[in-house]
Write a sequence for this structure.
């Protein structure tokens, strides 16, 4: 998962240059097997979870605690969400073991100050509020404000109040394998969104969706948040980038904002065409469910409760890497392509419980064949029994400021939620 070094100062001449860059950089193939994970958390003060936790305080505590032992990088999202990004490891077990230690290290550094890493994927206590001041985020905020009513409303929530669990998997042996993986990752999406839905409450209000975070993404600037159409991966991603409006331009100084309305294709045809560096930056402003970066960055999963974050990492890896599990999962997910219903109703949506059970059974069998660590295999099996088999997701459990104590909500209290007013 290493991006090839390149000279990015060269001017792009035409669409063929964009496609060539995309094929060379975003769809690098080779022997697969590496797994990386990015964990994001919303941080809250146990004494008053409605109070903003300053990023400066988080930095002080983390600096005092020293770097994570296995080299995960610590960064912050605009609203103060903490992100822990692992290195790439050979397989799910190695990734889980290293990232677990790094995550415990981070949590231990924050605990003496009474700070909690929330076990939900959208801030349940506070409305969105940006902390980071940077030209990128200034431009992003301005772009969403100008992109229409839905983006103006959901852009700040996405930036400042949501948390994801991202799984990074290799592109594949060759282009044919890359296409297979690309299709499968998208076919799996509604079923896995439903299985791992974990964001029902935002700013003190029930959203009406098991995955309120997905509700945000599915209303946000659809030209840059939906799946690229087409079967030729390089063509599809290049055209997606060309059609998307430019969000920002890196300049000397603090103002990267642009006037809304120019697509990258229009910029390419102008008298001052973009460079490869401009294209590189533009690609980071595209947020599809699966983003090609020289590997596949799976972006559609909610952050999970502390105990369960290894489960989607293991399940996705098993279903993509094991050919038999891939075939079984693809068959189980066929016809389940309603992302909105999956996010709103989770495994209560028609047919999704059965499809999820088939996927989890296939993943458990694949993990057994590959001799993954027994504790990781046990976690996946326990999640299957506690949630999937019962037609539930973590969204059906009550929120807790204690990540070790979150327990299932009694079945009689799991009523249908009314939609949030918009």
């Amino acid at each position: 998962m290493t991006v090839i070094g390149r000279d990015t100062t060269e001017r792009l001449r035409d669409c063929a240059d964009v496609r060539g860059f995309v094929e060379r950089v975003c769809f690098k193939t080779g022997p697969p097997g590496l797994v990386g994970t990015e964990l994001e958390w919303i941080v809250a003060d146990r004494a008053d979870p409605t109070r903003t936790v300053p990023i400066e305080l988080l930095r002080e505590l983390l600096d005092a605690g020293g770097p994570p032992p296995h080299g995960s990088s610590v960064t912050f999202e605009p609203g103060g969400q903490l992100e822990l990004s692992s290195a790439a490891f050979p397989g799910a077990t190695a990734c889980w073991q290293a990232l677990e230690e790094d995550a415990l290290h981070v949590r231990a550094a924050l605990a003496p100050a009474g700070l909690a890493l929330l076990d939900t994927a959208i801030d349940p206590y506070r409305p969105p509020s940006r902390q980071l001041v940077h030209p990128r985020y200034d431009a992003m905020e301005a772009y969403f404000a100008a992109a229409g009513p839905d983006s103006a409303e959901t852009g700040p929530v996405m930036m400042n109040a949501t948390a994801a669990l991202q799984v990074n998997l290799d592109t594949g042996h060759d282009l044919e394998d890359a296409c297979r993986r690309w299709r499968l990752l998208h076919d799996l999406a509604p079923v896995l969104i439903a299985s791992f839905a974990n964001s029902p409450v935002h700013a003190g209000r029930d959203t009406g969706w098991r995955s309120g975070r997905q509700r945000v993404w599915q209303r946000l600037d659809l030209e840059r948040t939906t799946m690229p159409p087409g079967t030729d991966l390089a063509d599809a991603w290049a055209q997606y980038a060309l059609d998307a409006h430019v969000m920002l331009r890196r300049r000397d100084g603090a103002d990267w904002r642009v006037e809304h309305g120019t697509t990258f294709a229009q910029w390419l045809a102008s008298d001052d065409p973009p460079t490869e560096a401009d294209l590189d930056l533009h690609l980071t402003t595209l947020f599809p469910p699966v983003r090609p970066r020289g590997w596949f960055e799976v972006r559609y999963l909610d952050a999970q409760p502390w105990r369960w974050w290894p489960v989607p990492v293991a399940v996705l890896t098993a279903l993509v890497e094991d050919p038999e599990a891939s075939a079984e999962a693809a068959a189980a997910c066929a016809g389940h392509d309603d992302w909105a219903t999956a996010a709103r109703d989770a495994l209560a949506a028609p047919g999704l419980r059965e499809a999820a059970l088939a996927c989890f059974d296939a993943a458990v069998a694949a993990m057994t064949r590959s001799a993954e660590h027994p504790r990781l295999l046990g976690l996946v099996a326990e999640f299957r029994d506690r949630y999937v088999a019962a037609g539930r997701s973590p969204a059906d459990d009550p929120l807790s400021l204690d990540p070790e104590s979150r327990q299932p909500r009694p079945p009689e209290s799991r009523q249908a939620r009314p939609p949030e007013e918009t």
Remarks:
- Residues 1-6, 410-422 have pLDDT under 50 and may be disordered.
